[in-house]
Amino acid sequence: MNHVADLSGPALKPAPSRAPRAPQPAHVPDRLVYDFDLFGDARLKAIGHDRILELARTAPPVFWTPHNGGHWMLCSYDAAYKAARDPDSFTSEFTPFAKVKAMMENLPEGVRRPLVPVPINLDPPEHAKYRAPLNSAFSPRAVMALRDEFRALAIGLIEQARPNGGCEFMTEIAEPLPVTLFLRIFGLPAERQREYRDLAAEDLAGIGQSIADPSAVQRRLWQIVDICRDTLLERQANPQDDLISSLWKLEIDGKPMTLADMENFSIVLFLGGLDTVMNGMGHGIRHLAMNPELQARLRAEPKLIPDAAEEILRRYTFTVPPRMVAKDLVFDGVEMKKGERAYIFLPAADLDSSHFPCPERFDLQRENKAHIAFGTGVHRCVGSHLARVELQTLYEVFLARIPQFRLDPDRLVTFHGGHVIGPDALHLLWDA
Ligand code: HEM
């Protein structure tokens, strides 16, 4: 059964853009302009991925939108795939790293250094130096060792909700579950979970507003670093069995890790660990809640759950990595100028009908399963093994312990847009 919402309904009022609309640049022809506000599109907020399906069907494969300061959206599978693997054309270094290093050497006293989220905001060859330490920490082997701990956490939370005949899944389960495990792996104190989570949510919500203002971006990043610093320093002095302690023992470029390196690492790990998986769980449990026959099938044949988790990731791909055009170029026949912003719209790429026939259909037998929900190229998600274990385990435990569940018909699901698209809240019901 598929759930493509009726898109012919009354037009929804557009939400205001967070950054000003930009005038159409002279090199952008009218046919490449499409009205879509990644951070505030009213239909995206109301119908989530059904809006993205609509966009994948009707928008140009690469388009320019005037919203949020004006930027490119790379939507087809081919465009997203090519751009993600071409850092010479689409850079992740919004400020060139060489320039940042030079600034650091001449920084006046009392001025805060520019923060660089590593490895995500670096291009090759610098990228590899900062990526290597994370590969082993998040390897399939390291992650398998965490499966039982995660399952126990999941059972605890799900058993707590079961007698209530329903729950608000996002706050009661999706948020505490991956976040508790992540804080433990990373080494941040669990009792400050609420504080960390609020900051991660605030940061992601603020991205739309700070697009046109690099100093606002830096202010947001410093908040994250400030909240982690005590623990970073404490673990340098008293190493424990956690990621912070093991990162301190490594070298970058033959030099011992510095506090500046550790602070740069903590930004992406903090945001990756605290916000992504919970949104993925929200999409998956919502899909299951709308499809009782799929629930029944997976309860009867739990060995299908890994495939189902993958098809959910494809059908509801939800992260949108940003890039900057590195030089004047022509990409897919489209003229782009150095310095323009481009979003790799992975959610639309995985709903591209030329790559995934009948993309709206949830199909466990799909011939081509090669989605790019975790990106592709050098920045491909380092946390993907951990995320997969968490998603599969959550579905297994939830289906085994909660009887047939459904969406609460009185509580409409709404979504947030931006770099991480997900449900705001998810009210479920079941017969206790
Ligand atoms: C379902 C959950 C997740 C999804 C869909 C996801 C998605 C992504 C995507 C698309 C990228 C590529 C970004 C780019 O091209 O610029 C990425 C990178 C990254 N992710 Fe994830 N992620 C998830 C979970 C996690 C987790 C649990 C962590 C763990 C801390 C994590 C850490 C990272 C890091 C550090 C990078 C940067 C890698 C690099 O630049 O080499 N992610 N993620």
Walk me through this protein's architecture.
There is one protein chain. The chain is of the alpha+beta class and 432 residues long. It has a single domain, classed as Cytochrome p450, CATH 1.10.630.10. The protein has 17 helices and 14 strands. It has helices spanning 42-47, 49-58, 77-84, 97-105, 126-137, 140-144, 147-161, 169-174, 176-186, 193-210, 214-237, 243-248, 259-290, 292-300, 305-315, 346-349, 384-401, and strands spanning 62-65, 71-74, 90-91, 166-168, 251-252, 255-256, 322-325, 329-331, 334-336, 341-344, 405-407, 415-416, 422-423, 427-430. The strands form five sheets. The chain has a five-stranded mixed beta sheet, with helices on one face. A hairpin with a 2-residue loop joins strand 5 (251-252) and strand 6 (255-256). Helix 15 (305-315) crosses helix 17. The longest helix has 32 residues, at 259-290. The radius of gyration is 22 Å and the shape is globular. The structure holds protoporphyrin IX containing FE. Protoporphyrin IX containing FE binds at residues 84, 92, 119-120, 131, 134, 268-269, 272-273, 276-277, 280, 319, 321, 346, 373-375, 379, 381-383, 386-387.
Write the layout of secondary structure elements.
Blueprint: H1 42-47, H2 49-58, E1 62-65, E2 71-74, H3 77-84, E3 90-91, H4 97-105, H5 126-137, H6 140-144, H7 147-161, E4 166-168, H8 169-174, H9 176-186, H10 193-210, H11 214-237, H12 243-248, E5 251-252, E6 255-256, H13 259-290, H14 292-300, H15 305-315, E7 322-325, E8 329-331, E9 334-336, E10 341-344, H16 346-349, H17 384-401, E11 405-407, E12 415-416, E13 422-423, E14 427-430
Parallel strand pairs: 2-10
Antiparallel strand pairs: 1-2, 3-7, 4-14, 5-6, 7-10, 8-9, 11-14, 12-13
Helix pairs in contact: 7-9, 7-17, 9-13, 10-11, 10-13, 11-13, 13-17, 15-17
